[in-house]
Amino acid sequence: MKAIRVRQFGGPEVLQLEELPALNPGPGQVLVRIHVAGVNPVDTYIRSGAYAAKPELPYTPGKDAGGTVAALGAGVAGWSVGDRVYVGDSLTGTYADYALCLPAQIHPLPASLTFAEGAAVNIPYATAFRALFQRARAQAGETVLIHGATGGVGLAAVQLARAAGLTVIGTGGSDAGRNLVAAVGAHQVLDHRAPNYLAELLTLTGGRGVDIILEMLANVNLGRDLTVLARHGRVAVIGSRGTVELNPRDAMARDADILGVMLGNASATELAAIHAALGAGLANGTLLPVVGREFSLAEAPLAHQTVMEPGALGKIVLQT
Ligand code: NAP
């Protein structure tokens, strides 16, 4: 089998394509033929060695994928060889043509979706769901600002919030990105690089502000986010790449909450709830993952460079 291996932490160049011995599923394990692997920003943090939870070297990166069940270990029930699945983490890493998974790490991929779309589900949709519903307790009728809506998590959040009856305002940094955010269902779209876009947001909400903000770049935005929240508003911090200064009075004045979001903190019960909801949405078509750029497995270094650049247009994937 082929896999990307990381033998030392560092820049994108440490991602090397290698030939490895075939994997065999042990008891309670499932072997998945990975057709397409998903690339997430967290893969780059881990690869660089800067992430708190570091894997033992060498390792194969990747937590997301679309594929088919290739073999079942002893004692695995409920799955058959050939079943289409999306992968939500694995035992061996998804930047490879095969990965070993626990049964709880695979979920049905409807026939209407491609394997690339399957590779775009796990981290983006699970994080967006956790932020919106498990952390911010979003309710139908509320208004949400998806601050950074053009990437994997943001587009997933637009679809989830729209399907749940919220008024959705998304932001993007490019014309193409903003068009995409509108196309997947945002009611209004703003440019987070424009000087006055938060004043525009207040105008759009009649001066009231938004009930919820899903924040992809808190180190840049959190201080100003607090000034555009409605009373009892919540900011769910999904992404941050540094520190930020804020005025606590902006939160006090609104009885506002700042909520940290970490998908890795979801309990087994919460994860099961997340994937049950995502499965329903994928099956009924309200959730349709957006695949942006596609690379080959050998181009993983380029994919890691690209995922950290501005101008997101959906999910970056690797065809195995
Ligand atoms: P992505 O696909 O690379 O998208 C990044 C997003 O950030 C794009 O929409 C980008 O918009 C936007 N952005 C750039 N500058 C911004 C600004 N000044 N204000 C607001 N948004 C801005 O990444 P992703 O997969 O969606 O993940 C988003 C962030 O969440 C990343 O930092 C990631 O590490 C983090 N994350 C956290 C968790 C968790 O459990 N906490 C889980 C998944 C992801 P333009 O490119 O259009 O400018």
Please provide a written account of the structure:
Helices cover 29% and strands 27% of the residues. It has 320 residues and is of the alpha/beta class. Strands 3, 4, 5, 6, 7, 14 and 15 form a seven-stranded mixed beta sheet that branches. Helix 3 crosses helix 4 (152-163) and helix 3 (122-135) crosses helix 9 (268-284). It is globular and about 60 Å long. It starts with a strand and ends with a strand. 48% of the residues are buried. The model has no long low-confidence stretch (mean pLDDT 98). The structure holds NADP nicotinamide-adenine-dinucleotide phosphate. NADP nicotinamide-adenine-dinucleotide phosphate binds next to helix 1, helix 3, helix 4, strand 9 and helix 7.
In short:
The chain has two domains: 151 residues, Quinone Oxidoreductase, Chain A, domain 1 (Alpha-Beta Complex), CATH 3.90.180; 141 residues, Rossmann fold. 29% of the residues lie in helices and 27% in strands.
Topology:
Elements: E1 2-6, E2 15-19, E3 30-39, H1 41-48, E4 64-72, E5 84-88, E6 98-101, E7 106-108, H2 115-119, H3 122-135, E8 143-147, H4 152-163, E9 167-172, H5 175-183, E10 188-191, H6 197-204, E11 210-215, H7 218-225, E12 229-237, H8 248-252, E13 257-260, H9 268-284, E14 291-296, H10 300-307, E15 315-319
Parallel strand pairs: 8-9, 8-11, 9-10, 11-12, 12-13, 14-15
Antiparallel strand pairs: 1-2, 3-4, 3-6, 3-15, 4-5, 5-7
Helix pairs in contact: 3-4, 3-9
The structure holds NADP nicotinamide-adenine-dinucleotide phosphate.
Residues 40-42, 123-124, 127, 147-154, 171-174, 177, 192, 216-217, 220-221, 238-239, 261-263, 307, 310-312 line the site of NADP nicotinamide-adenine-dinucleotide phosphate.
